[in-house]
Amino acid sequence: MKLFQNRKFKYGTMATVFTIVFIALIIAVNFAATALVDRFPFKIDVTDKGLNTLSEETTKYLELLDQDITISVLAKEDEFKAYGDQTCQLYYQYGIDVLSYMPNVNELIKQYARYSDHVTVRYVDILQDPNFVSKYPNDNLAQGQILISSGDRYKILNAIDLFYIKQDDYSVYLKAEKTLTSAIMVTALENLTKVQTVTGHNETDASGLTSLLEQNAYEVSEVNLSTGDIAADTDILLLMAPMVDFSEEELKKIDTFLENGGDYGKHVFYFAGYNRAETPLLDAFLLEWGIEVSMDTVVETDYNKYFNRNPFLNVADYADEIYGSKYKSLSTKMMMPYCVPLRAIFTEDGNRSTETLLSFTSTAVAMPKDAAEDWSPDKAERKGPFDAAIVGKRTTYQGLDEYSSTVTVFGSVLAADSSLLSSSLYTNAEYLLDVFNGQSENTISLSIYSKSLGNAALNMTTSVQNTLGIIFVGVVPVAALVLGLVIWMRRRNK
């Protein structure tokens, strides 16, 4: 009995009990945390750009998703995390490091399944599973690709599609979320808004804008009006700064498209180039819709309204309440570089009307196309305000229902350049989507911006993860036990 009353025994016993309770607590917390992570999408993203975290827009979309989606990564998980696809490896060989961020891409893919019971993520080694490949005989599936499917609809992505590489300095941006969410959204929809881009007039490259549209439930194709016809199910016709005038026959096809047998409901978008050639027939067509397009270029004299000390890199004001109201209070602006001045020649004329979407104030002036080398803003003959974007509308009524066709003109084709559309510094992508969606009544859109990879993320290899696991699950508890025993032994020997 004296042993149990011994002071050393009491303290030693307490130390041992404390150590055991401490170890048990660590084990319990470990099991509880593991269970919670498996049950709920709870993870801490320690990357400085939030590379492993889905945006609020994506998570809200996933919560509303009612279609079953399967994300099939065509590789073993470890191989996908390490190598991506062949193009990723090729970029890496040339000094553009995208492979370091493949673990982030892999983690991001897994997040989709955590936020929706309708999303399944699986890894398919197509080298070992020829039956999977045989289901897609015409698609030439390759290692590292990502196949997103819903029923009979599917979309194939390359791993390199999850990155955006700037061509001027080869800096890398992660656009995995934008690409994946868009692919899921498009795959889940049965009917997409159809856009045809007009070719054959030395148009400006439209890939930046068409890529944005494709990522937001639009189906894009091309049409040469001199050799083909506008598809009957086309909703939008896109004219990207043509340098050659349209023929009367081509414009008649556009008129017929907009008339749509008297039902209207069709739309044309025209983006003007600052160095545009004279196109009298096309200009006359636009005038019929109430829009005059100048040959001049807008120069801003207020340094608060342009960037990089370049008065041609100017921002426009939101002039309408339909699309612009939600942007007026934002610090980010709509960039309209090298914009040509527009003018609405009427507001209302029978069943025709116009509305200004974007504008410049009286601080802007117009530089003539044939301006002399010594021209300066103080010599300008034309001064603002100018319009920068206008929508012309024709309306018909069937009973109480209103149906309209529209022609929307933007004075800057560079406003739709990929560099501006991919930047969160400007509202170009979101605003253009709002206008396209508003005209076509497309209610599905997401504005997800690419994330810069300028700073290194915390990436851990499997071996590092295992080492940390051993330290915190094994070494730390054992060390605590040993420490408790040492303390108990020292006190016992006193």
Structure description:
This protein has 494 residues and is an alpha+beta fold. The protein folds into three domains: 2-45 and 478-493; 56-166, 3-Layer(aba) Sandwich (Glutaredoxin), CATH 3.40.30.10; 193-421, Rossmann fold (3-Layer(aba) Sandwich), CATH 3.40.50. It is 35% helix and 23% strand. It has helices at residues 2-5, 7-39, 56-64, 77-83, 86-93, 102-115, 130-134, 176-188, 207-214, 248-259, 280-288, 418-421, 428-440, 462-493, and strands spanning 69-73, 119-123, 146-150, 153-157, 163-165, 172-174, 193-199, 218-224, 236-240, 267-271, 291-293, 297-300, 306-307, 310-318, 334-335, 342-344, 348-349, 352-360, 364-367, 382-383, 386-398, 401-410, 451-452. The strands form five sheets. Strands 7, 8, 9, 10, 13, 14, 15, 17, 18, 21 and 22 form an eleven-stranded mixed β-sheet that branches. Strand 7, helix 9 and strand 8 form a beta-alpha-beta unit. Helix 2 (7-39) packs antiparallel against helix 14. It starts with a helix and ends with a helix. The model is unreliable at 44-49 and 455-464 (pLDDT under 50).
